[in-house]
Each structure stands twice: as structure tokens, then as C-alpha cells.
Amino acid sequence: MLAARLHSPGEALHLEEVPIPEPTGTEVRVRVAGCGVCRTDLHIVDGSQPRVEMPLTLGHEVAGWIDAVGPDAARPLRKGRLRTGDAVVVFGGWGCGQCAECLAGEEQRCPTGRSPGFQLDGGYAEFLLVPDPRDLVPLGDLDPIEAAPLADAGLTPFRAVRRASPWLRPGARVLVTGLGALGQFGLQYLRSSNAGSKLQIAVRETEPTRLELATALGADVALLADEALPWPADAIFDFVGSDESLRGAVHDLSPNGLLLVIGEGGGRFEMGIARIPVEAWVSSIAWGALDELHEVVRRARARKMRWSVERMPLTEVEEAHRRLRAGEVEGRIVLVPG
Questions:
Q1: Per-residue pLDDT tens digits for 62-102
Q2: Are residues 169 and 225 in the same domain?
Q3: Which of 87, 140, 309, 331 is most buried, judging by how many CB atoms fall within 10 Å of its CB?
């Protein structure tokens, strides 16, 4: 099968013919329909992402069809009401199953977890091995190519909005920084939250072309990066995570406000009593839990969200990465094998 593999940080990806993996035990082989191209993939190529093992097939936003199963997978597959040929999206937080995080249903926080596109071969390929059927979420009538971004771009902001729920009271003032693929989902989740219609939501972007989209998705205020926020924010969702965006967030945050750092822009800011607003809260967000992915897919199947996908052949992976680096992607590029 064809796979796009990285052998060392800083190198170009290699399109290689590798053996089709054979499932053993509880493993399930998924025939990949599409794999989303995430900015984290660029960090892996650059060598700035921790806990990555190479050589590696990249890609963690994967959807496709169940193709083959290991001898011990039949029973859990039936339990999940799945069968060969079903369209699925892959949950990538593959934990050890035994630590406190895994037992609490937070496998994506497992300290020894091994995930596709990070420590194990991912979805920039024609087939993917998944360790257990429970890591597969049925898509029903959703197109698996269109659904691939749900595995991360859809999941991570859902977790962020859920985490922020105590701050999202009627009248709360919210800032969304960055309206890329994750930010677009995040804005929609905010509007559909319990107090969604009564939130005051501002979006800040560096790209003027995205301001109209911000308004269409429900923002009350759409700002360019150098424009001032009209009020202090009770909750800030930073989908950029650069030095500049984090400094701006600290400046714009209200006392007792919440800053959620979601973007992996490598930024830093100074912490301390006099450095941030009084009693402000700061939290990172990384991925989401399996039950949250089920809810994201349920909403997608109910057509309660909109997102844009641009399909590109797997053979054009280097061009896909170039365009993402250059800021030439409005939604999500999904690499399609074959």
C-alpha cells in the first residue's frame, strides 16, 4: 500500500510502498477514505512535537471503512454494533487501558498512550490498524471523507467548550482567536451551548477574508488582529497559541476569566500574581475523550454543524503541507488515497 512517511525531523515526507498491515488480536484494519491535514502534522515534521517515534506514517484525523478484523475483535465489534464494511471515524487517543486516566474514560491523557500519527503509523496511507473496535465511531450516512476532520478539528473544540461551561452563562463575553478549522467548529459549539444565544462572542483573525465567515457562523463582533476588543472577556478560546495571541489574551481577559490554550503555536506568556488578571484561570486543551467524539458525530449526523473539506490526493501531501503553512487553507484539507 502507499503511505506518506517521515524518517527524520526536517526531512520531506517519503511516498513509499509498504506492506498492508494484518490485524491480530482485537485489532481492526480500516481502509482509509481520508485523513485530515492538521497543523500538528507540521510540528511533527519540524521536530517540535514531543513524544513522536520515527520512522512514522503521519495522520491522526482518519475515517474510512472496516476492512478486516483480528481473531479476538469479532465480539467487541458486535458489541459496538459494527461490522465489516461500515463507515467509521477513528478515535486516536489509544491509552494503556489500565491507568487512572484510562479507567476514567480519558484515554487521550494516558501518560504511556500510543496514538496514530505520533507513536504508531497513522492515516496518511491506504490502510490503518486500530487496536480495538471501541476506538471506532460509526458514521451512519456521513461521507467518511467529509467526516475525517471530526476526529480532531471537530473533537478538540467540543472539549474546550465543554470545559468552559461554568463560564458560559447568559451575558458572558467570549473571544475566539483564530477561525481556522478548529475555530469554526468552536464558534458553532459556543452558539449551540446552553446559553449560546445570550453569549456575546467576538472573533479575532489575521485574515480579513475570514471576518465575513465569522459573522455567518454567529459572531457578534469580528475583529482583525490589531483591533481592540470592546470589552474584557470572561472566556477566551485561543486557537492560535502564538506569543502574540497569548499576550493579547492575557491583556483581554477579565478577572476570574478563563483562558483556554488550544492552538499549538509554541507561544509563551509570563505567569504570576501581577502578570495575569486577578484569579484568572488558564487551561490547556488536547484532543478529547471517546464519549465526546460520539457526541460530535451525533451532531454531525443531525446536520447541526457546517464545515468545509478540500479533497487532495495522498500523492500531493507535500503541497497540502505547503499550503497549510502558507495559510492558504480555509477549512480542512483531507488527503484521499487512490
A1: 999 999 999 999 999 999 899 999 999 999 999 999 999 99
A2: yes
A3: 87
